[in-house]
Design a protein that fits this description.
The chain is of the alpha+beta class. The protein contains 6 helices and 5 strands.
């Protein structure tokens, strides 16, 4: 079956491409992030590296005979966010293929636009809830690794990485929600809710 690339020029096609691209940006910012903090105590460095899914476990004995530990788990929020991004990626890719190869069937079968609309609502809700959850998790991650709240003993000093990439991931998360929510209007116009009885099977003509 020939591909109908004209769909890519329509709002629903353009939006799906945007969904695909921005979903990648969102979860890659999380999965590829590597953070660190290093305790400097009497000439010795004690590095701690953490990354996705952000299950922090840091237990050391400093050379001043003091023990220091960090235990925190933000994996639930991080995994929910990444899972949402992966779901959005797969769905936007799959529905774009349907647009390209089966656009005539999509237009003639009223169940397909309706199912597409409902699925988009679900993914949009996931983006909103997962972005809010991850924003909260990131706040906790910043707190447990913050220099001012670490309370390192022995008058040791601490250096740490920045959270720029993770901050951007949250922005991308809410941006994805906005994009998916915006697409609902274009998809709604394809449904029988908007067009009434316009849809009909070719056999009924």
């Amino acid at each position: 079956m020939d591909l109908n690339f004209n769909v890519i020029q329509e709002p629903r096609g353009v939006m799906r491409i945007a969904h695909f691209v921005f979903a990648i940006f969102a979860f890659v910012c999380v999965t590829e992030y590597t953070g660190y903090l290093t305790i400097h105590c009497k000439g010795t460095d004690y590095p701690f590296v953490y990354k996705y899914p952000f299950e922090l476990e840091y237990n050391i004995t400093l050379n001043c005979a003091s023990k220091y530990e960090i235990y925190a788990d933000f994996s639930g929020d991080a995994k929910f966010f990444v899972w949402t991004g992966f779901l959005a990626l797969i769905y936007s890719f799959a529905i774009t293929i349907i647009y390209l190869k089966f656009d005539r069937i999509y237009i003639q079968n009223p169940k397909l636009p309706l199912g597409d609309f409902i699925a988009t609502v679900v993914v949009a809700v996931f983006w909103l809830s997962s972005s809010a959850a991850w924003a909260n998790g990131l706040t906790g991650l910043k707190y447990v690794t913050d220099v001012d709240s670490l309370a390192v003993p022995c008058q040791c000093t601490v250096t740490q990485s920045t959270f720029t990439t993770l901050n951007i991931s949250v922005i991308f998360g809410f941006l994805n929600f906005f994009l998916w929510a915006t697409d609902l209007w274009f998809l709604y116009k394809e449904t029988t809710w908007f067009q009434g009885n316009k849809f009909h099977s070719t056999s009924g003509v």
